[in-house]
Amino acid sequence: MPTDRRTELARALYEDAGTRSLGERITSLAAHILKAEQCSLVLSMGYDITTITGGTSLTSQMDERQMVLGDGPTVSAIRQSTPMILADTNGYVERERWPLFCDEASKAKVRAVLSFPIHTGAVRLGAITAYWTAPHSPTPSEYFDGGILADVALEAILNDLAGVSLDTALSELGQDVQHHTIVQQAAGMVSEQLSVPILEAMVRLRSAAFSTHRQLVEVARAIIAREETLEK
Fold it and tell me: Can you give the pTM of this predicted structure?
């Protein structure tokens, strides 16, 4: 994953952070890079969609129907932790895969859907979903950017849950793959040590770094080296 593109999208996501909610910024940036008519952000716990945020009344309706039906690209993206492409709700392959949702979407004049899971390892935070009123297959660049945005959104949501300041969040931009691997390893250790879910461990790591004015990776390395432990 090219660091420069990740940093570029992350910086764009943090623009207007003082005037718009995180959900609004994620869906707005998603619509821009995916050239979508409308986008939504769905947050989840495990397999169950629990929060629908951002987007419009149409996207909220479509996300809610998927939650009720247990059928659709957003639900599949979250459950399988992989992007889902629904190029045409009237298409044979698409109707074979998501028959219930395609019927509902067609009634609402939705013809195409693209959903990117927001996840890391076994942690499923939700999905970013784009909607079109005409058939649409993503270009390679749209598909690539959507995956990067989902990764950037993951970090932003975790920072938001941990109460990390905007300045601190911006200072963490552009970290490489090794950085994320170290943080993931430390989160796994914290999860085991404190007997908490991995999501809570990831949030606690960020809170600890922010409260002690250190870089996230610095705290992660200290935990891996067993030089530091987090309190319950």
Answer: 0.85
